[in-house]
Amino acid sequence: MDILIKLLIAHLVADFLLQWRSLLQSKFNKKFASPYLYLHGLIHFLLTLLVLWNLSYWPAVAIIAVSHTIIDGLKVTLQNQRNQRALFFIDQLLHLIILYAVANYYQVIDITGLTQYPYLYAHLLFIIFLTFPTSIIIQILFLKWELPETINSSLSGAGSYIGIIERLMIYGAVITLNWGLIGFLLAAKSVFRFGDMRDAHDRKYTEYVFVGTLLSFMSAIVCGVLFMLYAGQTSLLFWPAN
Known about the structure:
Structural class: mainly alpha
Strand content: under 5%
Radius of gyration: 24 Å
Largest sheet: none
Oligomer: single chain
Order of helices and strands: HHHHHHHHHHHH
Number of strands: 0
């Protein structure tokens, strides 16, 4: 696992911290003809070797650097305005697969222990439910009301993602008994939303935000409580230790 961690450190530094704007622009404009594409690959090679601090790994590091260069070249060749986001994640996924394969060659990585965690699937159930299924359920509940036009002026889908993030944080707060985090999130959301509701001068919009927030928070709290009941941790839930 140590090798994989070191490879990931080198990847994050080289791919996100050591790519300046002119390098990215040159890669996008000239594709495989850009010298910066190969400079980027060389940076990966040198930095990875430096982080590993062992010259005997140089063949594997060379494979990482060459494959990274090829993948990046293909990405900028195929990239356009419509597929830019998808290609970014595909690009990163391919890099991670190669890093995992190289690390596993030198140091077998046993991930079967994760599946032996007794509550893994219970967590997956609640986490999945708190993402888009809960968003859809809340949207369906609001169909009985005519929603104000103010809601449609926000970024497309942003509200759903904000709700997902807050629900996952609340779920994590409940199962770790950090109840204060829930109060902090509610207070923070109230502060950020106060200006919108004050400027809107629309009672429907205020009620929409209020009801939506309560539904979102309560769904996450209920899922957290259900997990604690399933795990038999009711004593911690209702009578937390001092």
